């Protein structure tokens, strides 16, 4: 079960676990800063930011300090990306997005889709979204370790497609977590739902706590499968580094 968003958890302080002042890779075509929000209800074995999964009492980096840096970077950056962890876990996210927009920045969001209601609420404030889709929705628990996570992700996928927002759906590929057949099935599902832009990201061991996942080597997925999947989408990217 996901931790519910309740009044008790609804502190208004954004919990910032990390900040990258400049990147060219986290928002396609934009110069951006990335704010990493603390907290994630899921436990993916391949997580690159496991230190961001728990939420601490206070914010490791005060949000007002991040805002001060962003103010100084007006005119130098196009956008601010909220990432994590799972940024939609934070009840202060909407206010933070509004503050960033007021500075004139575009806003990107990286999410796994754990909180559909909050995602639907903030989506009108977002210019671009990168949504991780981890497996066929019925198989999510195998990757996230959390029962019911697939239903949340499915609802978020539907919400994003219906909104028409610029997007990239992406799937991290590791042979122990998603078979070739499941990957094909997932791509077919996303294509049929209306996903226009899809990326496969080959698992990288950097930052991952799982020795078992890191020990697996080899070329995956097969080239023929990648070609088949690429043909299902208007835009497709294979990231293998
Ligand atoms: S959803 Fe993302 S942040 Fe959360 S555990 Fe999985 S990979 Fe890590």
Summarize the structure.
This protein is an alpha/beta fold. It has 8 helices and 8 strands, in the order E-E-H-E-H-E-H-E-H-H-E-H-E-H-H-E. It is globular and about 50 Å long.
Write the layout of secondary structure elements.
Layout: E1 16-23, E2 32-37, H1 63-72, E3 79-83, H2 93-102, E4 106-111, H3 116-122, E5 128-132, H4 140-144, H5 149-163, E6 166-173, H6 180-193, E7 197-202, H7 211-215, H8 223-230, E8 235-239
Parallel strand pairs: 2-3, 3-4, 4-5, 5-6, 6-7, 7-8
Antiparallel strand pairs: 1-2
Helix pairs in contact: 3-5
The structure holds iron/sulfur cluster.
Runs in which pLDDT lies below 50 for 5 or more consecutive residues are 5-11
User: In what order do the strands lie side by side in the largest sheet?
Assistant: 1-2-3-4-5-6-7-8
CATH third-tier fold name: TIM Barrel
Measured as a percent range, the helix fraction is 25-40%
The largest β sheet comes out as: 8 strands, mixed
Averaging pLDDT over every residue, what do you get?
93
Kindly report the name of the CATH homologous superfamily: Aldolase class I
Describe this structure in words.
- The longest helix has 15 residues, at 149-163.
- The chain has helices spanning 63-72, 93-102, 116-122, 140-144, 149-163, 180-193, 211-215, 223-230, and strands at residues 16-23, 32-37, 79-83, 106-111, 128-132, 166-173, 197-202, 235-239.
- The model is unreliable at 5-11 (pLDDT under 50).
- It has eight helices and eight strands.
- The chain has one domain (16-240): Alpha-Beta Barrel (TIM Barrel), CATH 3.20.20.
- Strands 1-2-3-4-5-6-7-8 form an eight-stranded mixed beta sheet.
- The protein is an alpha/beta fold.
- It is globular, with a radius of gyration of 17 Å.
- Iron/sulfur cluster binds next to loops.
């Amino acid at each position: 079960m996901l931790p519910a968003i309740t009044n008790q958890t609804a502190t208004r302080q954004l919990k910032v676990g990390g900040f990258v002042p400049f990147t060219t890779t986290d928002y396609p075509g934009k110069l951006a800063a990335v704010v990493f929000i603390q907290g994630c209800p899921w436990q993916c074995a391949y997580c690159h930011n496991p230190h961001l999964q728990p939420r601490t009492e206070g914010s490791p980096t005060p949000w007002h300090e991040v805002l001060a840096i962003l103010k100084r970077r007006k005119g130098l950056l196009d956008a601010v990306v909220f990432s994590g962890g799972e940024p939609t876990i934070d009840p202060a996210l909407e206010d933070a997005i509004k503050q960033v927009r007021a500075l004139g920045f575009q806003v990107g969001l990286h999410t796994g889709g754990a909180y559909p209601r909050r995602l639907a609420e903030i989506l009108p404030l977002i210019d671009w979204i990168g949504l991780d889709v981890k497996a066929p929705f019925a198989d999510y628990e195998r990757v996230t370790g959390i029962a019911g996570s697939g239903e949340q992700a499915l609802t978020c996928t539907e919400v994003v497609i219906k909104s028409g927002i610029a997007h990239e759906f992406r799937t991290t590929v590791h042979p122990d977590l998603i078979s070739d057949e499941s990957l094909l099935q997932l791509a077919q599902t996303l294509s049929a739902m209306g996903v226009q832009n899809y990326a496969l990201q080959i698992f990288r061991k950097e930052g991952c706590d799982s020795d078992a996942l890191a020990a697996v080597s080899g070329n995956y997925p097969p080239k023929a499968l990648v070609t088949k999947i690429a043909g299902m989408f208007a835009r497709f990217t294979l990231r293998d580094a």
